[in-house]
Automatic annotation (TrEMBL):
It comes from Flavivirga aquimarina. This is alpha-L-fucosidase. It comes from the Bacteria. Its EC number is 3.2.1.51. Residues 484-647 form the SGNH hydrolase-type esterase domain. Residues 1-23 form the signal peptide. Keywords: Glycosidase, Hydrolase, Signal. InterPro entries: FUC_metazoa-typ, GH, Glyco_hydro_29, Glyco_hydro_29_N, Glyco_hydro_b, SGNH_hydro, SGNH_hydro_sf. The keyword Membrane does not apply.
Length: 662
């Protein structure tokens, strides 16, 4: 984002320093690196494509016939001669066009950039071109430069202005204008060429693009189309790319400037091709792609205005497409086809509004996010950003349990729309599971924000860092300090019995879900460095439950004994507590812990007796006839309640007293 802000600053400085609206010359512009140049685009994720031109007048229909595909192809699909088609510019008077309103609708939908068709395949231009009279100023009654008005509106509202430009030109005699009635014959038959095309390229195509790059300020993206014709060569494409970057060094150019694109898939074949990003069309790649790409898509079936096309994609589907694309590392360029008066179709407006509602609430999970580092889940998609994973839930689980990728290491999970309500994350039957509300807060996609454990803090070493600094400073004042080292049972003890910890020099160092491996790493900063008289070690529950994967009872015991030996080395007295009884673990119902608990307690007791260490037996006082935790002592089948801690308190005090006498 810092790079993006720097780019915006550069763009603003560029605008302020210009004495006219012309783009600065190469010598005046600071050339950015490729990563800096691409940064704003990579962060933006969501843009608006606008297909608009004189083809909006017939709307895909001629004498009762509806053209197949997009309405913008009507000149070719329904066999208009150039002379017949030239009647449409004279009819093109979009008096309801309002650039500020168009940009506002894009912005309100959550879009960050706009790509407008400066010239489509029919050859009609939406700006005041000095190269040709076949444009909106000279051939239509509208007499307004749409590109200028839209570029200015974008700058006012902080939207990046970009333009689409067709390499193909069905109107120009040196391009495809001589191929009637099949202007597009060159797509399927690569032997169909116009020998005059190089002249069109040099004297018409390049000069028009130069006008757009020099008369309308900084351009975010130059988006080409029509690369499929044999007339246009890869040598032209590479030269064209360099030509554009010479005029505006920091603009971005799609891969259709060259000849590498593999059909609608949109990505380049192997080889040396120009272009900054791939362009999948009307499809989303099955998996992520390790390069920049942008999926362009219509809301119905047509790019240009086509009132007969009623096959509108739902707002839900379009929003989920956005999420799907971002989860795979791409951008989403969503199309609008305005009508001949300059109005967005009401169906498009409705969908833009709905997407805007979702992006305003959940944009944090989209803008600046990177592709998911995990496999695609059945219930939705992941995105990632700045130490967070965002789980976008399309299909709400009926049982309220969302199974997430086991390799995720969550520190905290919340609803993105409700950051103050924490969601419980537990291991259930070996599955990392987030407990969700009964009903989905958003019927399109509810986002769960998962804060990750830092990669360098797997053991939560920073959890008590500040508190430990204070305790170390007061270590000379409190010679009788005792540290309770454990997991959630220790952690909750401080909550349920605050007076017990206030009246006694006891320090609680417990974290929910903590295993003995993690406790062993924490033992020095959380115990030894505090210089206590004694340590009470509560461990084993989370290991038995499989919270961090399979581990044997012997390995658990070895970790506990290692902590005890570390304490003894530093002249700290040790109390080894038994594992509390439990009939089952609610988060891992398949685990049968009774025998494992008995076996681990036996190992701990034997070790304590052999090494003259106090063994603290909670188990005997809290176990029921079925070898589970007595109901009156538990808030569930594992964790003590207030009464349970009342049972434990005199037992631990007596054990500490014994340990200090040894």
């Amino acid at each position: 984002m810092k790079t993006f802000n720097r780019l915006i600053l550069i763009l603003l400085v560029t605008t302020l320093n210009c004495s006219s609206c012309l783009a600065q010359t190469n010598s005046e512009v600071k050339k950015l690196s490729d990563d800096e140049r691409m940064a704003w685009w990579r962060d933006s994720k969501f843009g608006m494509f606008i297909h608009w031109g004189v083809y909006s007048i017939p709307g895909g229909e001629r004498d009762g016939k509806i053209c197949g595909g997009g309405a913008e192809w009507i000149m070719d699909k329904l066999d208009y001669t150039i002379e017949e088609y030239e009647k449409f510019p004279a009819m093109f008077n979009p008096v309801k066009f309002n650039a500020d309103e168009w940009v506002s609708m894009a912005k309100d939908a959550g879009m960050k950039y706009i790509v407008i068709t400066s010239k489509h395949h029919d050859g009609f231009s939406l700006w005041d071109s000095k190269v040709s009279d076949y444009d909106i100023m000279d051939s239509s009654p509208f007499k307004r430069d749409v590109i200028k008005e839209l570029s200015e509106a974008c700058k006012k509202q902080g939207i990046i202005f970009c333009f689409y430009h067709s390499i193909v030109d069905w109107h120009h005699p040196q391009a495809q204008g001589n191929l009637f009635p099949n202007y597009n014959a060159g797509q399927k038959d690569q032997t169909v060429v116009n020998p005059e095309f190089p002249k069109y390229y040099e004297n018409y195509l390049k000069p028009q693009v130069k006008e757009l790059l020099t008369n309308y300020g900084d351009i975010g993206v130059v988006w080409f189309d029509g690369d499929w014709i044999a007339d246009y060569t890869t040598e032209m494409g590479k030269e064209f790319y360099d030509f554009i970057r010479e005029i505006q060094p920091n603009t971005i150019i799609n891969n259709r400037v060259d000849k590498g694109r593999k059909g609608m898939e949109g990505m380049d074949a192997e080889g040396n091709f120009a272009g900054d990003f791939g362009t999948p069309e009307q499809e989303i790649p099955a998996t992520g792609i390790d390069s920049d790409w942008e999926s362009c898509m219509t809301m119905n079936g047509s790019w240009g205005y086509k009132p007969s096309d009623k096959k509108w994609k739902s707002s839900k589907r379009l929003t989920q497409n956005l999420i799907d694309i971002v989860s795979k590392g791409g951008n989403f360029l969503l199309n609008i086809g305005p009508d001949g008066l300059g109005q967005f179709p009401p169906e498009s407006v409705e969908r833009l509004k709905a997407m805007g509602v979702w992006t305003r609430e959940n944009g944090e999970s989209i803008y600046g996010a990177s592709a998911s580092p995990y496999d695609k889940p059945e219930w939705g998609r992941y995105t990632a950003k700045d130490g967070f994973i965002y789980a976008h839930v399309f299909d709400w689980p009926e049982d309220g349990k969302l199974v997430i990728n086991r390799t995720i290491k969550p520190r905290q999970a919340t609803l993105l729309s409700d950051p103050y309500t924490k969601l419980k994350t537990k291991l259930i039957d070996g599955n990392l599971t987030i407990h969700l509300p009964e009903k989905a807060p958003n019927n399109i996609a509810t986002v769960i924000k998962i804060k990750l454990m830092p990669n360098d803090d797997w053991a939560n070493l920073k959890r008590y860092k500040k508190a430990n600094i204070k305790l170390k400073a007061s270590s000379t004042k409190n010679k009788n300090r005792v540290v309770f080292m454990g997991n959630s049972i220790t952690e909750k003890w401080v909550k349920y019995s605050p007076e017990f910890f206030k009246k006694n020099p006891f320090v609680g160092r417990g974290i929910s879900g903590q295993t003995t491996s993690q406790m062993l790493l924490r033992f020095k900063p959380d115990v030894i460095d505090l210089n206590p008289k004694a340590v009470v070690i509560h461990a084993g529950t989370n290991d038995i439950a499989g919270n961090r994967g399979p581990i044997t009872i012997e390995q658990i015991a070895a970790n506990i004994f290692s902590m005890a030996e570390l304490a003894k080395t530093h002249n700290i007295k040790v109390v080894l507590a038994s594992v509390l009884p439990a009939s089952n673990y609610s988060w891992s119902p398949s685990v049968e812990p009774i025998e494992k608990i008995e076996a681990l307690n036996s190992l701990i007791k034997t070790y304590a007796e052999k090494n003259n260490i106090v063994y603290l037996d909670y188990y005997s006082s809290m176990v029921d006839a079925h070898k589970g935790l007595k109901k009156e002592y538990g808030r569930d089948t594992v964790h003590p309640n207030a009464k349970g801690y009342e049972v434990m308190e005199p037992l631990v005090k007596e054990a500490i007293k014994k340990a200090l006498k040894k």
